[in-house]
Amino acid sequence: MARWQLATTWVVFLGGALAAWSLAAATLPVPAYVLPPPLAVLTSGTELITKGILPMYVGESLRRIVLAAGLAMLVGVPAGLLLGLSRRIADVMYPLLNFFQSVSGIAWLPLMLVWFGFGERTILAAVNYTVLFPVIFNAMLGVRSVPRIYVNALRTLGGSRWRIVRDVLLPGALPNIATGMRLGLAYGWRALIAAEMLVGANGLGFMIFNAQNFHLTARIMLGMTIIGLLWLLLDYFVLRPLEEATIARWGLVQR
Amino acid sequence: MSAKIVVRDLGHEYVNPFTRERVVALSGVDLEVPAGEFLTVVGPSGCGKTTLLNILAGLIQPTRGAVLLDGRPVVGPGRDRGVVFQEFAILPWRTVERNIAHGLEIQGVPRAERAASVRRFVELVGLKGFEGKYPHELSGGMKQRVAVARTLASNPEVMLMDEPFASVDAQTRITLQEELNVIAQATHKTILFVTHNVEEAVFLGDRCCVLSRHPGRVKTLVPVRIPRPARTWKMFTSDPDFTAIKDQVLRLVREEVGAQEP
């Protein structure tokens, strides 16, 4: 679909949805806190912005995800690559990593509360853990899935082991590394919101959970919208350009 | 001419990981390839052609016998033996240019010299104008040209080619065969070329080595005494010498296929 067609489709779709929502909010016989109109969500947004609360909460959530996910990738990508270099180690680690990847950070939260206390450290640990495992697991898988023929080709050209790692295994693992980062960030973003709900004193998760105590439904909807929008922005301005410049350019993924 | 490659009493056995059967891929292979010879190895599928080539490349350790290159035993892969694989083994994340330069990069050849060499081989294999393309933007035939150019550019003493043109269309294959014939004349490299295609084997080879199967061993060596400049497909369709050799080799290969059928 052409760009303008896509844009038009979305404007029509969003406009229609907002109109239907407004109509439902105005006509349905329910109290305003059950279904506030879109305008109320917007108003709560401007109110929170002028008070400085929303920028602060968004900033806190972003700071946490950048910190926790950044550290997880810094550690996870090299760790996964190293594990992938040895068939034997990879075979041993596979079920282990697969196991931990499936036990979400949130499932660890009770234990982490005991270990790290009710606060910032627990949130960061839970998010860090959540991001770390898909990143390690996929980086390892990436190295293992590089076609053997590429490695052999380089060996016959006289390539050293380090050469093979640098010129073949690393770039060859990139599609999986990208998948791992994408999954890790997506899981991490969700884990962050959940952790902030339970442990946070600020941040978007705290905001929507706390708003519920005061029946500030518009504020909940606002928070949810922002959570989704921030992910779209991250995807559009960071993840996609990175993939376009590498794995898509090399024809390793189809767009 | 001295023997560049000597294969002595070579045997290779392995266990098929799926059926757990013991397979004797090669047994008692003796072969000498003089320096500068273009030897084609032909035989029915499953006769151990690729295994032989991989052993020469040093990618597989034989279970018996030895391979000597200039009198020294082959123990592993090395840049003195360049390989063109059957599958497209060029790297998708490198452009045509950088793929061709890869061997030179590994050898530590300075940038300017590398660029000059790449230009030369890009021209030789007919890839001018495609230097900046990535492999996924090329056709199968062009990918194999890149692979051939990469091997040539790294200037190995021996070129090992494993059915390099098997996965390109018939039209392109003829062009590539003709080009390889020209390259062989120009570079005088020792080339061992594995194929299941009899016509290709006779067209390209100075000698044509027919392998028997189960186990794979040298059945016959058929010399092809047709001067290289005369080898074009146009002439070959009408050349009685070529047809005679082709029929002879085909008969030998068919015996091997027939030996397996009731």
Structure, briefly:
Chain A is built from ten helices and no strands. Chain A is mainly alpha-helical and 255 residues long. Chain B has a six-stranded mixed β-sheet, sandwiched between helices. Chain B has a four-stranded antiparallel β-sheet with strand order 2-1-4-5, covered by helices on one side.
Summarize the structure in words:
The complex is a heterodimer of chains A (255) and B (262). With 255 residues, chain A is mainly alpha-helical. Helices cover 83% and strands 0% of the residues of chain A. Chain A has helices spanning 3-27, 38-51, 53-85, 87-102, 105-116, 120-144, 148-156, 161-199, 204-213, 217-245. Chain A is globular, with a radius of gyration of 22 Å. With 262 residues, chain B is of the alpha/beta class. In chain B, helix 7 packs across helix 9 (240-258). The longest helix of chain B is centred in the C-terminal third of the chain and has 19 residues, at 240-258. Chain B is globular. In chain B, 46% of the residues are buried. The model of chain B has no long low-confidence stretch (mean pLDDT 88). The A-B interface holds A 147, 149-150, 152-160, 163, 167-168, 171-172, 174, 246, 249-252 and B 57-59, 76-79, 81-83, 85, 87, 89-93, 102-103, 106-107, 134-137, 150, 154, 160.
Summary tags:
heterodimer; A: 10 helices; 0% strand; B: 262 residues; globular
